[in-house]
Amino acid sequence: MQSLTEFSRLGSGLGLRRGQLLRSVEAQADLADHLDFFEVAPENWIGLGGAFGRQLRRITERFPLICHGLSLSLGGPNSLDELLISRIKQFMATHSALIYSEHLSACTDDAHLYDLMPIPFTEDAVEHVASRVRRTQDLLGQRMAVENSSYYAPLATDITELEFVNAVLERADCLMLLDVNNVYVNSVNHRYDPRTYIDGLPADRVAYIHVAGHDNEDADLIVDTHGADMIDPVLELLDYTYSKIGTRPTLLERDFNIPPLPELLQELERVQVVQKPYLDRPAARSSGR
Predict the structure, then answer these.
(1) Cα–Cα distance between 48 and 66 in angstroms, integer?
(2) What pLDDT was estimated at residue 282?
(3) Domain ranges of the chain
(4) φ, ψ (nearest 5 deg) of residue 166
(5) Which helix (H) or strand (E) holds 126?
């Protein structure tokens, strides 16, 4: 991977999905004027040949690529899927992917659950997750990033969410994918100050950032859907994050109700407006710890 400082200059990007969005990306010749990178879930592309495989290769020859996993289940009880990691490593080499990230969550229990389940905030869970991250990094031959997840029904909470995340980062010696929308969602659902959370993170471990939209189910319940436009408070928290840690590559997630590419680019431009004042500033090296 590039150095963190070089990586931080990438700017903004979108998640790449098969279908109409993929065709639109290929067709827009001036796309490099509107975004800097793409992110894919490697599980959805590994081993994919034919037209989709050729399309992806053409795109990754034009744009940097980030891999964001969905099914490694870092917090799960089953054995780590080392075959999947090997296949991800090969996929990353083929497409010169810059970094691999995964969720701080579980998605298996003798079978895939097809959802991201919460894991307990305990010392035992820290060591369980950190050991699996260390093994993954050994197999990949590079550091990975772990993402703070949204959750709705906390399990055991011997330590806080922030303490848990920081402990995993330190013991695994890994990087962080900071999902600003998840910080906001959790801050509403679990009633904490999102800026205090940002203040408490080690800035030098934050590799890149996610933002997204969500659904308001009630005044004190938000569901992280990635299926709506971003709201202003999330962009304000993104601005605050940049002010604390410096700019980072920032991805707009949209997984449902995906609009046409021109509308997605308009949404991404909202991120770029927030990001622009920070692009020429040096990245921060430390934060509230």
Answers:
(1) 17
(2) 55
(3) 4-278
(4) -65, -40
(5) helix 123-140
Strand 221-223 and strand 215-218: the pairing is antiparallel
Rounded CA gap, 152 and 264, in Å?
Answer: 28
Which segments of the chain have a pLDDT < 70? 1-6, 108-115, 156, 214-219, 225-227, 281-289
Identify the CATH homologous superfamily for domain 4-278. Answer: Divalent-metal-dependent TIM barrel enzymes (3.20.20.150)
Interatomic CA distance for residues 137 and 130, integer angstroms = 10
Sequence letter at residue 114: Y
User: What pLDDT score does 45 carry?
Assistant: 94
For the entire predicted model, the pTM comes to: 0.92
Q: Residue 219: its pLDDT value, please?
A: 67
The pLDDT assigned to 288 comes to 38
Are the beta carbons of 210 and 180 closer than 8 angstroms? yes
Phi–psi pair at 31, nearest 5 degrees: -60, -30
Question: How many Cβ atoms from other residues are within 10 Å of residue 21's Cβ?
Answer: 18
Task: Tell me the residue type at 15.
Answer: G
d(CA 265, CA 82): 36
pLDDT of residue 286: 41
